[in-house]
Amino acid sequence: MKLFVKYMVSNRCKMVVKDALKKMGLHYVIVNLGEIEVMENINTAQREQLKTELRKSGLELMDDKKSILIEKIKSAIVEMVHYTETPLKVNFSDYIAGKLQHDYTYLSNLFSEVVGTTIEHFIIAHKIERVKELIVYGELNLTEISYLLNYSSVAHLSNQFKKVTGLTPSHFKNLKRKHLNTLDTL
Can you spell out the DSSP letters for the chain? Predict the structure, then answer.
């Protein structure tokens, strides 16, 4: 039986869901971002118990088909931006449409209507957060980051970064260094 969970966006969320299922004596086949598949058919009482368990951790079991689809879109974006180690060779719209088996225009319109922002802006926000994370880790240079996140060039990444954050990637990196140096001297 498939179930869908709202706000499930990290590996830690997956652990929370697995623990809740184990606590209830339910056996999972798959626990992905936003989606669970359990071996058993869950009755109404078990569903309510699972809802209560998940709510304790800020997660929510979903019933509405549109909400489920929106969460699937968000999960696909989070997965492709934050958890993909190799650069995508397709554009994001093709990736999302293929993964969710829906027409991208339909998904885009639904997302904008329900969330109040476009899929493109949602992707950009996540990409910039990922860029910040990678800059702070310092393991990759901007060229490698731009390649990993499917930017056409370092200039494109830098322009988008500045538009969203108000800072250049270099300035952001220097701010982090200054902050870290200040902490080291304490």
Answer: -EEEEET--SHHHHHHHHHHHHHTT--EEEEETTEEEESSPP-HHHHHHHHHHHHTTT-EEE--HHHHHHHHHHHHHHHHHHS--S--SS-HHHHHHHHHTS-HHHHHHHHHHHHSS-HHHHHHHHHHHHHHHHHHHTSS-HHHHHHHTT-S-HHHHHHHHHHHHSS-HHHHHHHHHHHHHHHHT-
Q: Report pLDDT digits (tens) over 27-64.
A: 999 898 888 899 988 888 998 999 898 999 899 888 77
How many structural domains compose the chain?
Answer: 2
Kindly report, residue by residue over 103-125, the tens digit of the pLDDT.
999 999 999 998 899 999 999 99
Neighbours of 54 (CB within 10 A): 23
**Neighbouring C-beta atoms of residue 121, cutoff 10 Å:** 14
- Please return the burial class of 88, using the count of CB atoms within 10 Å of its CB with bins 0-12, 13-18 and 19+: middle
Do both 74 and 111 map to the same domain? no
Task: Provide the residue count of the chain.
Answer: 186
Last residue of a domain, one of 76, 91, 106: 91
